[in-house]
Amino acid sequence: MEKSVERQIELIRRNTVEIIPEEDLVRKIERAIKTDTPLRVKIGLDPSRPDLHLGHVVVLQKLRDFQDLGHKAVLIVGDFTGFIGDPSGRDSERPALSWEEIQANAQTYFDQASKIIDYESAEVRYNSEWLLPLNFRDILALARSFTVHRMLERDDFDKRYREGIPISIMEFLYPLAQAYDSVAINADIELGGTDQRFNLMVGRTIQERYGQEPQCIVLMPLLEGTDGIRKMSKSLDNYVGITDEPHDIFGKVMRIPDEFIAKWRQLITLWTHAEREELEEKIRTGTVHPMEAKKSLAFDIVRKFYSETEAESAQAHFIRVFSERELPDEEMIETFQIGQEMADSETGGVRVVDAMVAAGLCESKGEARRLIRAGGVYWKPDGKDEIKVTDELMSLELPVSGIIRAGKRRVARLVG
User: Fold this and answer.
1) Would you identify the CATH topology of the domain 330-415?
2) What is the DSSP letter of 174?
3) Three-class DSSP category at 319
4) 266/277 Cα distance (integer angstroms)
5) Nearest alpha-carbon partner for 403 in 411, 395, 391, 392
6) For domain 5-220, is the CATH number 3.90.1640.10?
7) 246-323 sits in which CATH class?
8) Mean per-residue pLDDT for 220-242?
9) Which of 195, 279, 313, 364 has the greatest CB tally within 10 Å of its CB?
10) For 124, how many CA atoms within 13 A lie in the half-sphere containing its CB?
11) Domain edges within the chain
């Protein structure tokens, strides 16, 4: 174990937003060093989908910091709480997954987390181990530990309550169940994103009610997703999975807005704050072109989770396919069936905007029209040259066979 309290605090502070309360953390570290007893550092993950993304990496890397300092990492897969679904930041109840889906997704977590943390020295647990055996009396005792008034202090619950949007009792139970995880493993510290502040604070309260010393909380910044608007989230499909194919990781990173390049650098590749500020200044003054900075970032992220060779291959693929506007290899293009049922009654063909939505190139016809107006849509019938689509009402004659491209990256084969 690292014997310097100052060195431990310095590393723990790196990239963190808040430590609650820091003076208690210092005391815990001093005691751990004196007694040579590692602190139990908890992180919880709910298996809403089967892959970890870069947003998880921010917190997992902090867990690795604690391991490197000599403390015990406790990784909890929320197979039971995943059945409830975390309501944090939601304006409606999160759809529940089936038990089978949760179990299948949870199985993949350990292998993926081992890319970041030292799996061999970590303690990995499923919270169904202690939550499933609870009887109704136990649940009532847990519920008695917290009030509805305190629950409504959460911004998302308060907003839904004021707007008359239903909040189920089950959603109130989520932070209590997550807090009970801390009791079950006797956590000294819990890590999470800033959006988890309320849930983690509940853990402190519940631990005290059960006679334990309350955990300290280390809050990490949220990583914006590839849309540059909302936090990276599996449910929002704006994420970069750490097990995505190398060329997919590279391509997704290249989609992030320029203003987030330096932040991703700091949080994912562990640049210092000074290095981040230096890069931001170089981009601002034009010393470094954002595209080149983004390519370098994408390269390093692929290398982090794969290898130098895979990163070089992914970069070459991006340059060939997108920078030089070549189409991907034929086998890499997904095929979509365009049937007679999609035919327009006026033209007898399939309108390009309908085909783009059906192929998943756009989420809506409005988005497809905007892309056409911006000059970003191309159609290449088999055996003919590629043309730019300039008419929002353009129809494709049936039977259709060719490749449609929206922007630099979204490509699909249409047949039918």
Assistant:
1) 3.10.290
2) H
3) helix
4) 10
5) 411
6) no
7) mainly alpha
8) 87
9) 279
10) 18
11) 5-220, 246-323, 330-415
